[in-house]
Design goal:
Layout lengths: L1 E6 L2 E4 L4 E9 L1 E12 L6 E6 L5 E3 L7 E6 L4 E6 L8 E11 L2 E9 L3 E6 L1
Parallel strand pairs: 2-11
Antiparallel strand pairs: 1-3, 3-8, 4-5, 4-9, 5-6, 7-8, 9-10, 9-11
Length: 122
C-alpha cells in the first residue's frame, strides 16, 4: 500500500502562514489526484483543495485566494501553502491520494495520512 506522511503543521497567529507537505511512499506505480482535507473538533472532515496529476486544482470557497495546492510528481509529494490564516482554519489537516501500486497495477485505491495539527490563534 501507499503511506502518506504530513508535516508542517503548527501554531500561528491570525494572518500568518504555514506550508504543509505530504510525502507518499511505498510501492507506488502512479499517483492520480491528491488533496488536502481538514477536520475541526466536533465537525466532519471537509475538502480543502485537490490537484490532479496534470495540475488541475480546485478549492473550497472558504480558502480560495488564501491557500495554494501544488505537487512534485518526481517526489510524490503534495503541498499546501496557507496564507492569511484565520482562527476558523484551525483543524487537523489530512493528506489524501489516489493511486496504484506495483502489486495492484489495474486498481486504484485511496489513502490517508495521519494528519497534522494546524492551530491559528486570534
Amino acid at each position: 500500500q501507499v503511506q502518506l506522511v504530513e508535516s508542517g503543521g503548527g501554531l500561528v497567529k491570525s494572518g500568518g502562514s504555514l506550508r504543509l507537505s505530504c510525502a507518499a511512499s511505498g510501492s507506488i506505480l502512479s499517483l492520480n489526484a491528491m488533496g488536502w482535507y481538514r477536520q475541526a473538533p466536533g465537525k466532519g472532515r471537509e475538502l480543502v483543495a485537490t490537484i490532479t496529476s496534470g495540475g488541475s486544482t480546485n478549492y473550497a470557497d472558504s480558502v480560495k485566494g488564501r491557500f495554494t495546492i501544488s505537487r512534485d510528481n518526481a517526489k510524490n509529494t503534495v503541498y499546501l501553502q496557507m496564507n492569511s490564516l484565520k482562527p476558523e482554519d484551525t483543524a487537523v489537516y489530512y493528506c489524501n491520494a489516489n493511486g496504484r501500486t506495483y502489486y495492484s497495477l489495474t486498481t486504484s485505491s485511496f489513502y490517508w495520512g495521519q494528519g497534522t495539527q494546524v492551530t491559528v490563534s486570534s
